[in-house]
Fold this protein.
Amino acid sequence: MKTLKIPEATIIRLSVYSRYLTEVDRKGIVTISSGEIAEGVGVSPAQVRKDLAYFGEFGTRGVGYNVKDLRRHILKILGLSVDWSVTLVGLGNLGLALSTYKGFRERGFIITSIFDNDPEKVGTKINGVEVLPLENLVEVVKQNRTQIGIITVPSAAAQDIADMMVKAGVQAILNFAPVVLNVPAEIELRNVDLAVNLEVLTFNIGAQRF
Ligand code: ATP
């Protein structure tokens, strides 16, 4: 099969489409046109058709898309038709917010383990998941076959945590610490620097002024 390089912007829109389709499906709507999807998520109908065309034809001309089928198809493309085991390290304010975020579970990201080095936090439970000491990380993450690690420790600790996650066999890391991490090439690494995102916004606001 020919594999096309799918632009990241398309992947992000697919995620948005699938969330919208979940909503539409809950309302009991059976079919939907690209125009309706476009209106629902705020992009052009041509963009929706172009994004979906990467994955072959699955609409019927004049009828539109079957909501359930399209949703299932997109979730499969995004790798969300299965559950993913996620570990979170660093149960500070951000870590706590992320570990209690319902949107992860709804999308199949199950936080199966949480670690912290603060003795006051170790032993507490978040949504039934016990906070464990760091010494257990490699063993537990290996045992759970956890694929994704979330890092919410302070910057100074982030590289050590990333190293432990890699040692434990995670395939991907979502790093919230504002620091550059070194990981082997085969590890998918995404950095979410919340302040940088705000700075992009302020830059864009400023750019309109000058
Ligand atoms: P809090 O005040 O509850 O610690 P915070 O968000 O201000 O919240 P940070 O200093 O950003 O906390 O630390 C985030 C979390 O990471 C904390 O729960 C802290 O105990 C934990 N932490 C710090 N260093 C490490 C480390 N080396 N390994 C594991 N966890 C760590």
Remarks:
- Residues 89-95, 116-118, 121, 134, 152-154, 157 surround adenosine-5'-triphosphate (CB under 6 Å).
- The mean pLDDT is 92.
- Residues 2 and 55 are 11 Å apart (CA to CA).
- The two ends are 49 Å apart (CA to CA).
